[in-house]
Amino acid sequence: MIKFEETILIMAKLGNYITGKWIEGDGEGQKLYNAVNGELVVTASTMGLDFASILHYGRSKGSPALKKMTFQERGRMLKALALHLLEKKEKFYKISYKTGATRPDSWVDIEGGIGNLFSNASLRRKLPNEIFALDGENIGLSKKGTFAAQHILLPKEGVAIHINAYNFPVWGMLEKIAVNLLAGVAAVVKPATVTSYLTEAVVREIIASNILPEGSLQLLCGSAGDILDHVISQDVITFTGSASTGLKLKSNPRVLKENVPFNLETDSLNCFVVGNDVTPSMPEWDIFIKEVRNEMTSKAGQKCTAIRRIFIPENKMEDVCKAIIISLSQTTVGNPENEKVKMGALAGKFQREEVKDQVQKLLASSQIIYGSLDSVEVIDADMEKGAFISPILLLNEKPLTSEEPHNIEAFGPVSTIMPYRNIDEVIALSKKGKGSLCSSIVTANEQFAKEYILGAGTFHGRILILNNDCAKESTGHGSPLPMLIHGGPGRAGGGEEMGGLRGIRHYMQRVALQGSPTMLTSITNVYQPNSKGHIDTIHPFKKYFEELRIGDQLITAKRKITSEDIDHFADLSGDHFYAHLRSTNFDGTMFDQQVAHGYFIMSAAAGLFVDSYEKNPVLLNYGIDELRFTKPVYPGQEIFIRFTCKEKIEQEIKDVNPEIPIKKGSDIPKGIVKWYVEILDDTEDPVIGIGTILTMVKRKFSNE
Ligand code: NAP
Questions:
Q1: Do residues 66 and 75 make contact, with C-beta atoms less than 8 angstroms apart?
Q2: What is the pLDDT of residue 10?
Q3: Can you tell me the distance from the alpha carbon of 213 to that of 184, in angstroms, rounded to the nearest whole number?
Q4: Which residues have any ligand 1 atom within 6 Å of their CB?
Q5: Ligand 1 atom nearest to CA at 246
């Protein structure tokens, strides 16, 4: 079998993985060069491909196969894929150097991307073992409880089309497909052509692993052709790149006509604010200088989240400029394979020319205080052959009246430093960027931070508040995390992706179901209040996980609550709140007389629904999800419980590491069962309390 490195040499053209095959496009293809030495790496072409049939293949083969899998299966698939790619990572690092990236830059791209797969795989624990998910709670729609509603999320039947930027050829793909695959939707990925050889290498490994169902991932290396002219309403498009291309694609008549969701992530003039409390003697000062240097130079500034605008209290400008310049002067530029090098090359010479052009535009109102557009000292490389550029720090002294620093993005190691006088001014300056992915503020002053966030928050997708308390463990200004949303308003595109479970909603259709509670229970497999239950002669605690049915129900015997019970509970728990004491004068209180503790009622409920002194499949009580007491219980009142199996959540046996002793019980096959507990009496308004309790229940058979 031909290995990838050899493949490049022999074919010299990247493959497109479409309709179940690796296919080369026609013609000579676009030449892709090594960013470090200018040598030709490979060519790429999608010419002659039938884009309509590529989309059709994803919809008819990949998405249906994924849709048949439950979230648990899809999650385990992502985990297997992450483990597989991790094994192959060194191969990707080697190729990544050609894009100009240093090893730490590539770590963000490669292992950051794989981390996204792991993180999305773990989300399965928050999702049912179903092909769909519930969205929110049951909503009662009638007085007698016979008509209700529940929102559900169903995987869309189209494909996710991801058109990505060149800066993160691995992360850009993996962070997106992790989400659509978990949602049950196939993907067609079109990386930016200039660095697509790295994406191609990863996709070759993914396809060869056979971990994904066929059709769930297709790859295009080269032009996107007329792909958007063939989209349908069930598809989802994501675009990461420049605002101008984004606008053009978003305005495609077919996209508009079919109302295809279009997630746009574009330029962003992210800003960093230094609080007016920060002085050179504070740890926050060094934290800030280090963060700015990192953000300017990591990935040679080709990060959508990179800091482009730095706002400093005007009386600290001189000190800050000096400190950043000293810090930047320690940045060694050159061949990213050389360990002494801290900053590699831009993705290509074309990109370097673009950065230079943008800096020229910025110079209309700013001056360069560090770096040069014409030269940079490089280590172990040839300045002429590679796409090297020096870090460039600009100074703009009139930011309120200058437009350039707030409108022009130089997608490289370029930032502009600007003064502000007070909190209102820095909020106004922050907003002049017209919407960004991320803003950071470094301050030890909580009030200053709060005012900034309340004032400028709606203009940023994410805000990092840095100080000495969190700096050591902070993930930094420039790291979008899989659990947090990534995206921003206005100029940043108005899009939003990732964000844990929020992300999968972009690939699922939310449907509001209305009907009888019993019908909704049977469709959703989660017990809905007022549904008919199944009363059985076998107590539900005597059933194994597999034997329990949603709706299995127990109506308990009655128990009279006495004043002595309440006194005893007060003594036992130490809770002598006045409402639980007989001696209290109840004038002016919420109660008529001594009232039972809510927790006593819940404990008494457990005494009614828990069965048997013998061991049974219930392993332990896991907690209470929610608990409400809706009316007081006075001495003499009789209560009883309606106890219903509400939801079952499968659990996997944890991977057993022979080095680590097994935690007691961790190897028992089991699942979580949620029980709907209704505490009732015999009055016309019978509900005293409602709760959902969780138990861990043994499986009869292992699910591995
Ligand atoms: P770009 O030129 O707009 O290209 C982005 C993607 O669109 C590439 O895959 C490109 O493919 C494709 N494309 C270009 N023209 C197209 C067309 N007519 N039809 C279909 N696809 C088309 O942007 P870039 O230069 O690669 O990326 C740099 C920009 O991306 C910067 O402005 C940066 O701020 C932004 N960015 C934003 C984020 C974010 O999350 N907000 C992240 C990263 C980058 P080809 O390569 O084949 O032209």
A1: no
A2: 46
A3: 11
A4: 163-167, 190, 192-194, 223-224, 240-242, 245, 248-249, 265-268, 304, 409, 411, 437, 492-493
A5: 3
Which residue is catalytic, options 221, 271, 304, 645? 304
Q: Could you tell me the distance, in angstroms and rounded to a whole number, from the CA of residue 163 to the centre of ligand 1?
A: 7
Tokens of 248: 């053009």
Q: What is the mean pLDDT of residues 438-444?
A: 96
Q: Locate the ligand 1 atom nearest the alpha carbon of residue 267 and give its number.
A: 34
**Whether residue 4 has pLDDT greater than 60:** no
Please give the distance, rounded to the nearest whole angstrom, from the Cα atom of residue 397 to the centre of ligand 1: 32
Question: Residue 614's pLDDT band (boundaries 50, 70, 90)?
Answer: confident
470 carries an active-site annotation: no
Predicted confidence at residue 667, as pLDDT, reads: 74
Say how many Å lie between the CA of residue 266 and the centre of ligand 1.
8
Domain boundaries, the chain: 4-133+152-265, 270-482, 533-698
Q: Alpha-carbon distance 339 to 342, whole Å?
A: 8
Span 665-684, mean pLDDT? 90
Say how many Å lie between the CA of residue 7 and the centre of ligand 1: 27
Q: How does pLDDT run across 28-74, given as a tens digit for each residue?
A: 999 999 999 999 999 999 999 999 999 999 999 999 999 999 999 99
DSSP lists the bridge partners of residue 313 as: 420
The CATH number of the domain covering residues in 533-698: 3.10.129.10
**Which stretches of 467-617 are assigned E, i.e. beta strand?**
485-486, 497-498, 508-515, 534-535, 552-555, 559-560
Task: Reply yes or no on whether the pLDDT at 294 is more than 60.
Answer: yes
Helix axis angle, 112-122 to 171-183, nearest 10°: 10
SS3 485: strand
Q: Which sign does the torsion angle of CA 269, 270, 274, 276 carry?
A: positive
pLDDT band at 704; cut points 50, 70, 90:
low
Nearest-atom index, ligand 1, CA of 268: 34
The residue whose CA is least distant from atom 19 of ligand 1 is 224
Report residue 551: phi and psi, to 5°: 100, -10
Task: Assign domain 270-482 to its CATH architecture.
Answer: 3-Layer(aba) Sandwich (3.40)
Q: Is the dihedral of CA 506, 502, 431, 272 positive or negative?
A: negative
Phi, psi at residue 650, to the nearest 5°? -65, 150
Q: Are 676 and 527 in contact (CB under 8 A)?
A: yes
- Type of residue found at 393: L
Q: Is the pLDDT of residue 6 over 50?
A: no
Q: CB-based contacts of 388: which residues, under 8 Å, 6+ apart?
A: 333, 334, 345, 346, 352, 376, 378, 381
Does the annotation count 438 as an active-site position? no
Active-site annotation holder among 111, 157, 265, 647? 265
H or E segment and range at residue 40 = strand 40-44
Cα(351) to centroid of ligand 1, in Å? Answer: 12
Atom 38, ligand 1: residue with shortest CA distance: 304
Computed over every residue of the chain, the mean pLDDT equals 94
Q: Is the pLDDT score of 225 beyond 60?
A: yes
Alpha helix ranges (H) inside 15-88? 51-57, 63-68, 71-87
> CATH for 4-133+152-265?
3.40.605.10
Torsion of CA 334, 336, 342, 348, to 10 degrees: 70
**Helix, strand, coil: what percent of the chain each, to 5?**
35, 25, 40
Tokens (6 digits) for 140: 């009662």
pLDDT of residue 702: 72
Q: Whose CA is nearest to atom 10 of ligand 1?
A: 192
Q: How much of the chain, in percent, has pLDDT values that exceed 70? A: 96
Q: Is 170 exposed, middle or buried (0-12, 13-18, 19+ CB in 10 A)?
A: buried
